[in-house]
Amino acid sequence: MAERNETGKDGEVFAREFLIKREYTVLETNWHWHHYELDIIAVKDNELVIVEVKTRSGNFLLSPEESVDNKKIRRIVSAADAYVRNYNIGLPVRFDIITLVKTERGYRVEHIEDAFYAPCR
After folding, report:
1. SS3 for 72?
2. Which residues contact 3 (CB under 8 A, 6 or more apart)?
3. Cβ(43)–Cβ(27) under 8 Å?
4. Which long-range contacts (CB under 8 A, 24 or more apart) does 4-9 make?
5. 1-26: pLDDT as tens digits
6. Domain assignment of residue 26, yes or no
7. pTM exceeds cut of 0.70
8. What are the Cα distances from residue 63, in Å, to 1, 93, 102, 119?
9. What CATH number does the domain containing 13 carry?
């Protein structure tokens, strides 16, 4: 497996544990719908929380959260809509981003709640 894929998978495992420690109930990880994927689907305080995980190691041009562009947001929202419809979820939905930057001692973590809203069509 490519080092980039390893870094991403390790970051997702770390983010999942990060959320569990903060009393989120993780329902799914790496949920797929067609060609779209949701990294983490969780529940906290009666909200469905869709979490995009961005992991970086070393130098990078864009900050991890900047890589979640409008195209990526549309894909996440479409997949979240499919998840809500498929499982008949009646909770409000929140979109978060967890950024992880690998350091010598582990990860520098930032949890951005309400990182973006579903765009109007």
Report:
1. helix
2. none
3. yes
4. 7/55, 7/56, 7/57, 7/102, 8/53, 8/55
5. 445 556 678 889 999 999 999 999 99
6. yes
7. yes
8. 24, 25, 13, 22
9. 3.40.1350.10
